[in-house]
């Protein structure tokens, strides 16, 4: 992977991948992170897979939340939930409904993990909003 880093096509893929990462997560990712792991993530996953036609970002996010819930990846779920709320792809109620739905397909403990991730993200977002409001009023 590293031997392609100077290649113009790879550079264009990197730009496309990082732009999609920024869109998916709602924050600015640096384009020059060293290492093959980031290269594969940006150049393949985000430049080639997330940009494919046929599914919206919201569709992909819902599929990803289902996969994450099925694997019990609550830390990753928090990142995805926060991004979905930040990008206004999903509401808190829709994510809760997804967790209820998934309980019946991936099992109650795994679906509950997704719901608990939502509860945690909601609390963090409300705390951040209160802190920002307090800072504005000072």
Task: Provide the fold topology.
Layout: H1 8-25, H2 36-49, H3 57-71, H4 74-86, H5 92-106, H6 108-137
Keywords:
single chain; 138 residues; mainly alpha; 6 helices; AhpD-like
Task: Tell me what you see in this structure.
By secondary structure, the chain is an all-alpha fold. It folds into 2 domains: 12-49, no CATH class; 57-137, no CATH class. The protein contains 6 helices and no strands. It has helices at residues 8-25, 36-49, 57-71, 74-86, 92-106, 108-137. α3 (57-71) packs across α5 (92-106), α3 crosses α6 and α4 (74-86) packs across α6. It is globular and about 45 Å long. The model is unreliable at 1-5 (pLDDT under 50).
Describe this structure in a few short sentences:
With 138 residues, this protein is an all-alpha fold. It is built from 6 helices and no strands.
Cα distance spanning the termini: 50 Å
Estimate the strand proportion: under 5%
Secondary-structure-based class equals mainly alpha
Question: What is the chain-wise order of helices and strands?
Answer: HHHHHH
Give the tally of β-strands: 0
What is the count of helical runs? 6
Percentage of helical residues?
A: over 70%
Average pLDDT over all residues: 92
Low-confidence stretches: 1-5
Q: Report on the biggest sheet.
A: none
Instruction: Give me the Rg, rounded.
Output: 17 Å
